[in-house]
């Protein structure tokens, strides 16, 4: 079902033009972008602010260092190789376990050390980086994601995107990997997006390929019972990224580790707008309310404000809601 622009406006849906001009252009100083565009810089900055991130095994900065990767990963049962300046999940290689035959991906496919060398060389050459610039390869420890969430995802680690505006967490969704997305939590590749109630961290709506979804396409598990553990702690971590970066409008990508709780994966100074589809609600009313608030509240106060004003009832146990097609979003 397609929606007219007037219908989208009445639902508070914002498009790329308004996002770029009104929010990113006004609240994000471009000189601060390197803090979030470079995942290595983000990780080091997060450590300074006491924000937990996946452990860094090591980095590879030159082609000469590639041949030393075997020694670097020795003794690690699993790890992830990432481009420091990648985007959209491109170039991330996850090794779930290591056995005598080689390195095993979540899909079960096996790679050898030469395959890892080739992948890292591609990262260094800028194959996955923004603008094709030379890059750095990061090797991180795997996340031991909370087993309570295992029935809601396929092969990959589910992550949580929270839009933070002026330090207030205004909207959130969980991205669940699927067979179609090749185990990656990327909505454009077929992952399931689940809108989350800011007050409780419970599921309010599910979408896949811009259509309503009430269960996971591969596991068959219903989505209505989804509830994020340590939800308030997670929101407080996301809200503190405002002070950490100085960026007024950003996307924070989080995961739940079963041992360490909420962890920061990465930040985005230009977060996408699909989160509105996952929630079945536009960002504009929430952003408008936050703009009216005075400065000076601390992290806990901002989170409490968001939980009080942005609470909502879920749709997953109700009748199907009408679809809104994102192709019409142009305001």
From TrEMBL:
Keyword list (alphabetical) reads: ATP-binding, Manganese, Nucleotide-binding
Domain ATP-grasp, chain residue ranges per copy: 43-298
A Pfam family (short name) is ATPgrasp_ST
Keyword Nucleotide-binding assigned to the entry: answer is yes
Q: Which InterPro entries match?
A: ATP-grasp, RimK-rel_E_lig, RimK-rel_E_lig_ATP-grasp
UniProt keyword Iron-sulfur present:
no
Name assigned to this protein: Alpha-L-glutamate ligase-like protein
Origin organism of this chain? Billgrantia zhangzhouensis
């Amino acid at each position: 079902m397609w929606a007219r622009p007037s219908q989208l406006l009445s639902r508070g849906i914002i498009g790329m033009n308004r996002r770029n001009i009104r929010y990113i252009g006004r609240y994000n100083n471009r000189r601060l972008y390197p803090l979030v565009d470079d995942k290595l810089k983000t990780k080091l900055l997060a450590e300074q602010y006491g924000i937990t991130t996946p452990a860094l095994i090591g980095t590879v900065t030159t082609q000469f260092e590639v041949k030393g990767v075997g020694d670097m990963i020795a003794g690690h049962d699993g790890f992830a190789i990432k481009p420091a300046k990648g985007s959209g999940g491109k170039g991330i290689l996850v090794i779930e376990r290591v056995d005598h035959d080689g390195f095993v991906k979540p899909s079960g496919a096996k790679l050898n050390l030469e395959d890892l060398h080739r992948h890292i060389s591609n990262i260094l050459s800028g194959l996955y980086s923004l603008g094709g610039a030379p890059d750095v390869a990061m090797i991180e420890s795997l996340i031991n994601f909370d087993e309570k969430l295992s029935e809601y995802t396929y092969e990959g680690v589910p992550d949580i995107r929270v839009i933070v505006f002026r330090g207030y967490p205004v909207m959130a969704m969980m991205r669940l990997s699927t067979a179609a997305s090749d185990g990656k939590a990327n909505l454009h590749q077929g992952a399931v997006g689940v809108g989350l109630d800011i007050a409780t961290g419970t599921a309010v709506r599910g979408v896949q390929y811009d259509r309503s979804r009430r269960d996971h396409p591969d596991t068959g598990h219903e989505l209505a019972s989804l509830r994020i553990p340590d939800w308030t702690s997670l929101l407080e971590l996301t809200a503190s990224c405002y002070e950490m970066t100085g960026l007024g409008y950003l996307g924070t990508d989080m995961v739940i580790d079963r041992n360490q709780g909420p962890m920061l994966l990465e930040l985005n100074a230009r977060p996408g707008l699909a989160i509105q589809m996952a929630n079945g609600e536009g960002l504009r009313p929430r952003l408008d309310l936050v703009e009216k608030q005075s400065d000076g509240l601390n992290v806990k106060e901002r989170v409490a404000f968001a939980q009080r004003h942005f609470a909502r009832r879920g749709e997953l146990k109700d009748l199907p809601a009408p679809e809104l097609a994102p192709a019409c979003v142009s305001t």
